[in-house]
C-alpha cells in the first residue's frame, strides 16, 4: 500500500516535470528573455522556483540544514542578475533534492500538522504542499510562454 508521503511525493515530482523538462531546452541566451513588458525573465523564474523550494524545505518542513537567501523573494523583482545557466541548473537541482529529502521523512500524521507562515497563513502540511506543486507548475507555464515568444 502506498503511503500518503509516497503519493504526495509522486504527485509533486510528476508536476515538477513541467519545469524540469524545460530546463534541458533552455540555453544561456534565453535567460534574459522576457515577454513584452512583463517583469520577469527566464533566469529569474528558474532562480525563483529554486528559492521557493528551499524556503518550503526549511520553513514548512523544518529542514534546519537548509541555508537559503531567497533573493528573488526578497527583491520581489527581476534584477537582471540570473544569467549563469550552469549555476541556475545546479541551484534547482539542489532545491529539488533538499525538498525531496525532507518530504520523504514525513510521517502519515505529519501531513495533518498545522504550520503557519507569513506568506500563506495557517495550513496543514498537506495543504501547504499543494502550494509548492501549483507554484512550480504556474511558473513553469510562464517559463514556457516566455521561452517560446519572449525576447531579450
Give the SSE map.
Elements: H1 4-23, H2 42-60, H3 71-75, H4 85-104, E1 114-117, E2 121-124, H5 125-149
Helix pairs in contact: 1-4, 1-5, 2-4, 2-5
Write up this protein:
- The protein is mostly helical.
- It has a single domain (4-149), classed as Four Helix Bundle (Hemerythrin (Met), subunit A) (Up-down Bundle).
- The protein has helices spanning 4-23, 42-60, 71-75, 85-104, 125-149, and strands at residues 114-117, 121-124.
- Strands 1-2 form a two-stranded antiparallel ribbon.
- The longest helix is centred in the last third of the chain and has 25 residues, at 125-149.
- It starts with a helix and ends with a helix.
Number of domains: 1
> What does the largest sheet look like?
2 strands, antiparallel
Uncertain parts: none
CATH architecture, please? Up-down Bundle
Superfamily (CATH H level) name: dinb family like domain
CATH class: Mainly Alpha
Provide the structure class.
mainly alpha
**Proportion of helical residues:** 55-70%
Order of helices and strands: HHHHEEH
Instruction: Please tally the helical runs, counting DSSP H or I stretches of 4 or more residues.
Output: 5
Give the tally of β-strands. 2
Amino acid at each position: 500500500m502506498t503511503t500518503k508521503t509516497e503519493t504526495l511525493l509522486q504527485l509533486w515530482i510528476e508536476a515538477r516535470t513541467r519545469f524540469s523538462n524545460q530546463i534541458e531546452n533552455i540555453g544561456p541566451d534565453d535567460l534574459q528573455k522576457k515577454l513584452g513588458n512583463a517583469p520577469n525573465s527566464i533566469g529569474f523564474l528558474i532562480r525563483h522556483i529554486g528559492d521557493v523550494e528551499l524556503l518550503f524545505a526549511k520553513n514548512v518542513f523544518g529542514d534546519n540544514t537548509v541555508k537559503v537567501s531567497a533573493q528573488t523573494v526578497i527583491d520581489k523583482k527581476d534584477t537582471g542578475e540570473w544569467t549563469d545557466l550552469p549555476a541556475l541548473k545546479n541551484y534547482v537541482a539542489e532545491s529539488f533534492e533538499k525538498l525531496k529529502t525532507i518530504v520523504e521523512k514525513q510521517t502519515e500524521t505529519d501531513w495533518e500538522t498545522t504550520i503557519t507562515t507569513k506568506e500563506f497563513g495557517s495550513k496543514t502540511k498537506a495543504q501547504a504542499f499543494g502550494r509548492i506543486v501549483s507554484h512550480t507548475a504556474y511558473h513553469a507555464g510562464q517559463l514556457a510562454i516566455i521561452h517560446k515568444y519572449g525576447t531579450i
